[in-house]
Amino acid sequence: MSDFDLALSIALGIGLAAATGFRVFLPMLVMSAAAYTGHLQLADSFVWLGTPSALTLLGVAALAEILAYYIPGVDNLLDALATPAAFVAGTVIAAAVVTDLPPLVKWSTAIIAGGGVAGLTQSTTALLRVKSTIFTGGLGNPVVATGELGGALILSLLALAAPFATLALVIVLLWLAFRMLRQIARREPPPAR
Questions:
Q1: Is there a domain that residue 191 lies in?
Q2: Residue 143: what pLDDT?
Q3: Which residue intervals of the chain are DSSP H helices?
Q4: Which tens digit of pLDDT belongs to each residue from 141-151?
Q5: I want to staple 34 with a disulfide (CB 3.0 to 4.6 A). Which of 17, 40, 43, 82 is the partner?
Q6: Cβ neighbours for 67, distance < 8 A, ≥ 6 positions apart
Q7: Could you say which DSSP state residue 24 is in?
Q8: Is the pLDDT of residue 191 over 80?
Q9: How many domains, in total, are found in the chain?
């Protein structure tokens, strides 16, 4: 594997992992479909993700997850469950697309880059949903859910089509999220009555 191919697979893994921070199963479904149709080569130990069974199961899981985020109360509960799940899914996705590396390097990269970016993305969206719940009484949460769904789908497809552009977009999104989190942290709580 050339250095360019290695960098390409790492950028692809990070892009798909970031998408799992928005929705856990949708990026895995996109990856599974791309592998099933022959558009994506997976590492040998992850070829099962490109099988019809995996495609079906991930499709059902993605649909259930998408619908559940539109149910008031369930969306906030899912965020508590999705944070560790996104870390695991981001790690798995990154490991699945990074091929021809020694296991230690591959898994270190997958955990740090894939799991890390997925966890950061999920944590940011969970905080955004909490703020939406507080400020709108939950009425704004479907808008947040739709934005997350769009983000997961766009990042997943863009990662497959243009991994380096996706990596740049992920860096910009994480920078914006960091700025948003700093602004939220600086705000003083409203005075008690």
A1: no
A2: 93
A3: 3-20, 25-36, 52-68, 74-97, 103-109, 116-136, 141-161, 163-186
A4: 999 999 999 99
A5: 40
A6: none
A7: S
A8: no
A9: 1
